[in-house]
Amino acid sequence: MKKLIYFFCLIFQFNGSAQLKTVFEITKESIRPDTPKSWKLVWQDEFEGSHLDVSKWFSYYPYTASGLDTCPACRTLGGDLVLTDSNLVVSNGTLKIIGKKQKAHWYGKTYPYTSGNLFSKQGFLYGRFEIRCKLPAGLGMWPAFWTLGEGVLEEIDVFEINGRYMRQFQTNYHHCYEARNHCQDPKWHLGPALHEGFNVFAIEWDPLFVRWYVNDKLVRTMAGYESSSSNRKIKSYKLKPGIYNQVTNFPKTKARIIAGLGIDSTKPGKILKSKLFPAVFEIDYIRIYESQAKE
């Protein structure tokens, strides 16, 4: 079988000012040697038992030096809700993240809703990140599963749902949150009725690609390199001979995994209808795999 011979080198490229950029060269067409043929499970939560495994998860955003929830945003993230531990229910082999229409207080402010959130205590660099879940329907419901870089803003949205459109889901990558500067690359996709049963969402992330899957069907590929000759991003694991430049904004930092149910009132001061609650984002499992080298 053909073997891929490649090397990485650093060169200077000038775009108004000199900046270091990684380049690699393919000298013979083949499948990359690190194209995954199999996966090894390295981390998981199957949500067995009756309580959340706090050795694996924060139930809030640990945005303090101590890692405690002692900040206004730690349990609100600037939204219309408070994240409470009681809204995370483990039973019958699944985790239920429950959104409720109930008033809650946090740091002197009153909020109209409560919900729940998972934030992993361990970070991961590259691999397959997978969740099997059933999602709540209804205008204002925003279930999501994503990764967030440690110390840097590199966010991969495995999925995000607008509960009003349960046959659509969004994938995205953020490297900043400003309105300009091409901070994100959202794409909407058609899918199954996401509230009627369990579905598996996953990304496969390596130094060259992020690939999104739903029920093992590839729905999107984002490349970390582009052809030096055409400035076009590569789209396939099978790379033709040539020189490739690194894309400036591509995730390359160890990341935490997050799952949560956002609730958006859609209009300032407008409270969602009671019939939408309780809303349940039900998770069967979350698993992390690393790729196995070909024998």
Structural notes for this entry:
This protein is mainly beta. The protein has a single domain (36-223, 251-291), classed as Sandwich (Jelly Rolls), CATH 2.60.120. The protein has strands spanning 6-14, 18-26, 30-31, 39-45, 57-58, 81-83, 88-91, 94-99, 104-106, 109-111, 113-115, 117-120, 127-134, 141-149, 155-160, 168-174, 187-190, 199-205, 209-214, 217-223, 225-227, 238-239, 242-246, 255-263, 279-291. Strands 4, 7, 8, 13, 18, 19, 20 and 25 form an eight-stranded antiparallel β-sheet that branches. A seven-stranded antiparallel β-sheet has the order 5-12-24-14-15-16-17, with no helix packed on it. Strand 15 and strand 16 (168-174) form a beta hairpin. The relative contact order is 0.23.
Number of strands: 25
Radius of gyration in whole Å, from Cα?
Answer: 21 Å
CATH level 1 class label: Mainly Beta
Q: What's the domain count?
A: 1
N-C termini distance? 13 Å
| Low-pLDDT segments, ≥5 res | 1-20
Number of helices: 0
Helix-strand pattern:
EEEEEEEEEEEEEEEEEEEEEEEEE
Described by strand count, sense and barrel closure, the largest sheet is:
8 strands, antiparallel
Estimated share of beta-strand residues: over 45%
Work out the helicity level.
Answer: under 10%
